[in-house]
Backbone:
């Protein structure tokens, strides 16, 4: 057997393993969907759920008269889908930024986008706006944070990675302070609890309208990063090396930043701040499929979708009161991240 | 010469002190944090930091003259609501003694020179120490039950030297509560509707839960059961699915959200299928001198309103007449028919079951 044959066989084996892994991840996503549609405070039997969904597929325009039909199709379905798409977007955003910064501890919060969007949303609640206005303000301030980071980080026509991170911290701190001012000014009897709850993250206001409002931003961001999956591998190289391969790292980084800002601001706008997804999920995906962004990006998307769908289901079913999602993702995320981190480094440090 | 002046000043001061002492006996009481509060005489200048206290103090004193400071959010409510109409001079009351967060702005507070500062009893020493460290007298109040409400109302009246006014207010509460309870005792458990009070409903749905809270208390007093009584805490976010599972017979909407109306429930795909919406039993609670949802000086009107709504066959309070009587007693104000319509949200609640009984008969 020649060396090339062995290499090909090895490669084929890895391909089969990878296909199996993706199959398992997709199965996990499907399981999360089925579990989430079935679970809820209002009891609907699994048989009835299947019947409702089949009826709906056969005749989507039929009027929904009974409460169980509406709960399954108008409450749980949009909520599960928003959670899934947001989970995918947050995880992919994290994976992309980690690639760009060559640092596995980076997340969308680093660029100040989440804080900017949080300020926009909190301001909207303080002023008594809800729905589209809240979404719009969160999005506008999320993007504003990114633009400010861009302006601040651009020195003599060049943008260094370290200045981007530091600018992100500065702008993030600025918007965090503005959020505090909004909380300070808010009426403790009325808007303050709503702001605090919204900042902790929740899909409790999910509707189809909100799903369609959030979908474009999330989908465009996801698609953009997926199209850049090959370039991300090049961006992970040293700048001089990347340039020699015909990539303008400065410009391409900004494409990724804008795509990430779009996804993060949209997800904050539809659901508040949900932390840890962008940090934990890409890390888990990297352990499963490796560093290659061509597979890491789709793997992060699938795992992120399955994970957030599952966690959101826990948030809305465990107790009669809705548990804020950000609290759950942090409670689950922090220890999982700790374990992953230790395992990763103990393997990396093996002689 | 100097000695003469000093003697003159001293004797003058002595005479003034003696006169003051003769005029006002010191007032001593224990506040709701268990602290001893001592005032040299009836408080003529009162600053209140908890929001609901502003309207309470105005009601107990029957005017705004003694109010030297209040929470900015409370002042906004006073100016926008009926109290601003009854007492237009309320516009001059300073509201920079605190931010909405109840932390006193001691400099501003001291500048208003209050005899008494009313503050929360159960939200930590950080809200209280700045007041007492500045040498001001604080009276701490605690919120949430009818018993506590009567207690702090009585304390406030004593502090302002208006004990003449508190008797009737407390008696009225006792009379109405026992009258409602007496009539409600005949109602069989099976006849008691499941009532859900939504503290917020515009964006997120927040139910007031917990067995012992004030909303549950008056729902049960008036012959209902609380749909959200199995929640462990107060003011928790729930989802529409949970409300569908409870399927309340009556939904009460709050006054904390200024734009809310029963349409919010009737237009919701899920909530519109609850018994409450199907039978048009969704009501926005009235908004008088203060919001009628939490405990306030007008609470007996809340109880009569809800009793008439839940069991029109058992209760037949003439709410409009009761309101006129109450506002005359509390604020010395003659409510117009239009005032009453506004307080009861007659337009907003129009078409709701049993609501016609509250319309003007004239």
Residues:
């Amino acid at each position: 057997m020649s060396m090339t044959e062995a290499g090909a066989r090895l490669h084929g084996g890895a391909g089969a393993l990878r296909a199996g892994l993706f199959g398992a991840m997709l199965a996990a996503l499907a399981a999360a969907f089925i579990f989430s549609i079935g679970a809820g405070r209002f009891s609907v039997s699994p048989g009835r759920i299947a019947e409702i969904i089949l009826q709906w597929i056969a005749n989507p325009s039929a009027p929904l008269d009974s409460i169980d039909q509406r709960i399954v199709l108008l409450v749980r379905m949009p909520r599960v889908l928003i959670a899934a798409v947001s989970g995918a977007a947050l995880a992919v955003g994290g994976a992309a930024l980690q690639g760009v910064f060559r640092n596995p501890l980076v997340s969308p919060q680093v660029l100040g986008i989440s804080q900017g969007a949080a300020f926009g949303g909190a301001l909207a609640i303080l002023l008594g706006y809800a729905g589209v206005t809240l979404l719009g303000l969160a999005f506008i301030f999320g993007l504003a944070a990114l633009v400010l980071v861009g302006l601040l980080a651009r020195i003599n026509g060049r943008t260094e990675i370290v200045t981007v991170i530091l600018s992100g911290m500065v702008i993030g701190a600025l918007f965090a302070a503005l959020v505090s001012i909004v909380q300070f000014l808010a009426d403790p009897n009325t808007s303050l609890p709503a702001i605090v709850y919204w900042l902790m993250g929740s899909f409790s206001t999910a509707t189809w309208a909100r799903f369609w409002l959030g979908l474009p931003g999330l989908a465009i961001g996801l698609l953009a990063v997926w199209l850049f999956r090959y370039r991300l591998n090049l961006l992970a190289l040293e700048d001089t090396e990347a340039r020699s391969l015909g990539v303008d790292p400065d410009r391409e980084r900004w494409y990724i930043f804008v795509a990430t800002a779009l996804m993060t601001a949209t997800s904050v706008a539809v659901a508040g701040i949900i932390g840890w997804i962008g940090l934990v999920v890409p890390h888990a995906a990297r352990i499963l499929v490796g560093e290659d962004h061509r597979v890491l990006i789709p793997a992060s998307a699938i795992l992120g979708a399955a994970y957030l769908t599952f966690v959101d289901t826990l948030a809305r079913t465990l107790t009669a009161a809705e548990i804020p999602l950000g609290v759950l993702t942090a409670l689950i995320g922090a220890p999982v991240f700790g374990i992953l981190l230790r395992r990763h480094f103990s393997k990396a440090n093996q002689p | 010469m100097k000695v003469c002046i000093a003697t003159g000043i001293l004797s003058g001061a002595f005479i003034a002190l003696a006169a003051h002492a003769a005029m006002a006996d010191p007032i001593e009481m224990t506040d709701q944090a268990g602290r001893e509060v001592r005032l040299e005489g009836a408080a003529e200048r009162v600053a209140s930091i908890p929001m609901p206290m502003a309207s309470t103090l105005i009601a107990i004193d029957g005017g705004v003259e003694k109010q030297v400071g209040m929470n900015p959010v409370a002042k906004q409510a006073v100016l926008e609501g009926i109290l601003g109409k009854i007492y237009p001079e309320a516009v001059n009351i300073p509201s920079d003694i605190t931010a909405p967060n109840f932390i006193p702005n001691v400099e501003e507070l001291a500048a208003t020179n209050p005899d008494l500062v009313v503050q929360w009893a159960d939200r930590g020493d950080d809200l209280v120490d700045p007041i007492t460290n500045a040498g001001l007298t604080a009276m701490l109040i605690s919120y949430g039950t009818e018993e506590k409400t009567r207690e702090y109302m009585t304390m406030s009246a004593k502090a302002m030297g208006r004990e003449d006014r508190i008797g009737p207010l407390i008696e009225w509460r006792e009379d109405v509560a026992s009258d409602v309870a007496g009539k409600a005792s005949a109602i069989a458990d099976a006849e008691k509707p499941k009532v859900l009070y939504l503290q917020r409903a515009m964006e997120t749905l927040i139910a007031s839960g917990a067995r012992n809270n004030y909303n549950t208390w008056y729902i049960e007093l008036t012959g209902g059961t609380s749909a959200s009584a199995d929640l462990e805490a107060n003011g928790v976010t729930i989802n529409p699915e949970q409300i569908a599972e409870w399927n309340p017979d009556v939904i009460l909407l709050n006054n904390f959200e200024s734009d809310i109306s029963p349409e919010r429930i009737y237009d919701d795909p899920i909530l519109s299928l609850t018994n409450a919406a199907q039978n048009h039993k969704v009501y926005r609670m009235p908004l008088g001198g203060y919001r009628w949802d939490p405990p306030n000086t007008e609470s007996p009107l809340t109880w009569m309103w809800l009793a008439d709504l839940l069991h029109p066959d058992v209760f037949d309070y003439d709410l409009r007449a009761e309101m006129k009587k109450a506002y005359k007693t509390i604020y010395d104000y003659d409510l117009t028919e239009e005032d009453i319509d506004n307080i009861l949200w007659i337009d907003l609640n129009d078409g709701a079951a049993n609501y016609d009984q509250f319309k003007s008969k004239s």
